[in-house]
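Human:
I keep going back and forth on a fold encoding question. Comparing notes only helps if you start from a blank page. Show me how you would write down a chain together with its backbone fold. Write it directly below this note and I will take it from there.

Assistant:
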Amino acid sequence: MLSRSSISSPESAAFRMNWMLVGLFAVLASCSSSKGNPCDTKVCPAAPDGGESADVCNPADGLCYCGTTAVAGSDGGGGVVCQMGTTCDPVSDTCVSVLCAGIVCGATGACDPIDGTCKCGGAVCPSGDICDQLSSTCEQPIGICQVKPPCPVTLMCDAAKNGDCVCYIGGPACGSTQVCDMDGGCIDDPCFGVSCTAPGAACFGGECKCGGANGVLCSAPGESCSPIDNSCGPTASCAITPCPTNTVCNAQDTLCHCGSTSGTTCNKNEACVLYIVDGGPLAPFEDAGGALVYGRCLGNDPCKGVTCPPFETCDENNNGACECGGAPDMNIPGIVCASDESCVATSDGGAPECLLNCQPFAAGQPCPALTVPDASTLVDEGCYYFQASKATVCAPSTAPDAGVGATCVQGSDCSATGANNNLTCASYLTDGGAVLVGPACISFCDVFPAGGPTSTPAPDGGTHPCPVGEFCSPLPAGIIAGICEQ
């Protein structure tokens, strides 16, 4: 029999639901041994390097287990079921992430092993943007790359090569059916034209697999990928039933029940929320600490379909509001920024806060000239562009003496006084977009190239050109200014 003492302690309610499902399988299977050994038709996930599986199939429930206590005996055994996106490492006998196997991010950042997506500074860049490796922020394309259709995933637009799609700036142009190789070269996409028929399978290297690039093949008629243990097996029962958060598949009816196999089944417009017996609701993925829990079907998740701005998180406990600086999954509320504010982290790794939006060339001073944090100190405040938030906001200057060209780190590391009151810290491109420079203190501008984007003129708008040899590159929509690039 399976025992919790032989299983690694899970940290979330979702994990507990999976173990309840595993326990149910063990009980039901032990009562129906006459149906044969389910491991006979089971293919467990491969090792992280694509080699022979380190999992052991348990004939009591037909699931693949990982760990030194995993036993393939008739009475089952211990071990853990590796979750989606992980597989069993034969060296450590633990589940490790394989989501980044075969993923080539190129100039869009680095692969995050938590979800297998390419990220820049912890965030996924918008389509067409590239990752500034110095500041770990996403940057918009320049020149012809602003108007041409985005390049395919893993490829980037090279303005210096007339908008060709390349694996890296300066690299060779790739064809419409090509992808980037691990060494940065262009290769024919082996998955072009491949259609995977097994539910849950995806194409990697021209083959349909479960669980990522190093997963097991799954393409025979009647096969499906199990979202429970990443294995490939016959399409049937709870082994391939994908259940929503906090729900568990009941092997007797193959339906997803709220909280436990004996719980209710939620309607399409309802979500399952876990409650502590004689207590309140659990936050998403909160551990009950051993307390008994039950499930209730409630109305739609208010955060479903909600996309929050950078540094903001949707709080389902606040009717789906986007909050700045909070951690809803830990029951730590944030602040809802006003309509004229943006959520900005003014320093790398600093706590985000709601700051007043500003326009660099607004009438008079775009921001209050001075702010008084205490009774004796006066601090200059300027209008700065923060690339990670894609917003210009009022913030105290953190380098009052830094003029044009000064080296900087964060948006406010530039002077906000006198002739320098329209500076911001940013990385910028030179040589037609081939060389990334900075970050440095550079000037805002609002005189754009002929035929290009234009700003909504403020009282003195359209009168701040760039120096000779430079052009005004527009900032994100809503900001009536740009920065000077070469």
Observations:
- Residues 312-354 form one domain.
- The chain has four domains: 4-98+239-269, 106-181, 312-354, 356-485.
- The first helix runs from residue 13 to 30.
